[in-house]
Automatic annotation (TrEMBL):
PANTHER family the UniProt entry points to: UPF0173 METAL-DEPENDENT HYDROLASE MJ1163, UPF0173 METAL-DEPENDENT HYDROLASE MJ1163-RELATED
A GO molecular-function annotation: hydrolase activity
The name this protein goes by in its record: UPF0173 metal-dependent hydrolase KI659_04235
Family the UniProt entry places it in: Belongs to the UPF0173 family.
Domain of life, source organism: Bacteria
Keywords, ordered alphabetically: Hydrolase
Domain Metallo-beta-lactamase, chain residue ranges per copy: 7-190
Gene3D superfamilies in alphabetical order: Ribonuclease Z/Hydroxyacylglutathione hydrolase-like
InterPro entries: Metallo-B-lactamas, RibonucZ/Hydroxyglut_hydro, UPF0173, UPF0173_UPF0282_UlaG_hydrolase
Matches recorded under SUPFAM superfamilies: Metallo-hydrolase/oxidoreductase
Length: 226
């Protein structure tokens, strides 16, 4: 599968000829100023929770592409009120098979309020199982023992997890989370966008190396194949 990074927690993953966009926050992100959202193609938009830095470009990209917006019931209902019709609601522990593979909505420990103050339900993450591989997109979360259940149920090829600390896990907890979910390879997200989550990249890489983990940190716009 092919993976492209658009900054913060925004990734576009191409699998089975389908394009799956996660947590689009691009136009307000100064670090991603060179990314034109009108050029982004998406068949699905998966949203972990309702915070502005995860939903800012959902409506615009969904309108432009016709992508199906997948999230928890509260977030999906909010977007329906904003005029989006192509949506699919989920909730914790539930799974759904789409034309690219299976998606399970799993627990995350965080908060979730939509940009206008509407409650966004409980935040979550996604485990995506496809013929090309299986991965865990953690969303914004603390380290939680529930992650062990992911490791018991799935054989992951990699994970995408926050490492910016302050609002989410930092690198040490992310390395432990990788142990819990059963992978030594993870891609870092949710760092450097704001002053609160600026990190020392060399220290973070050193911590991952000492923990025996393969940490991948991408440049904005970079594309890799996994």
């Amino acid at each position: 599968m092919k993976l492209q990074y658009f900054g913060h927690s925004t990734f576009l993953i191409t699998v089975a000829d389908k394009k799956i966009l996660f947590d689009p926050f691009i136009t307000p992100n100064e670090l991603a100023k060179d990314i034109d959202i009108k050029q982004i193609e998406a068949d699905y938009i998966l949203v972990t929770h309702g915070h502005e830095d995860h939903v800012a470009d959902v409506k615009a990209i969904a309108k432009n592409t016709g992508a199906v917006v997948v999230s928890n019931f509260e977030v999906v209902s909010w977007f329906q009120e904003k005029g989006l019709e192509n949506v699919h609601p989920m909730n914790h522990g539930g799974s759904k098979t789409f034309d690219f593979g299976n998606v399970k909505y799993v627990n995350a420990i965080h908060s979730s309020t939509l940009p206008d103050g509407t409650p966004g339900g409980n935040p979550g993450g996604f485990v995506v199982s496809t013929e090309e591989g299986t991965f865990y997109f953690a969303g914004d979360t603390a380290l939680t023992y529930d992650m062990k259940l992911i490791g018991e149920e799935f054989k992951l090829d990699f994970a995408i997890m926050p490492i910016g600390d302050n609002f989410t896990m930092g690198i040490k907890d992310a390395c432990k989370a990788a142990d819990f979910v059963g992978t030594n390879k993870f891609i870092g997200m949710h760092y450097d966008t704001f002053p609160y989550i600026q990190i020392d990249e060399q220290d973070v890489k050193k911590s991952a190396q000492e923990a025996g983990k393969e940490l991948i940190m991408l440049n904005i716009g970079e594309i890799i194949t996994l």
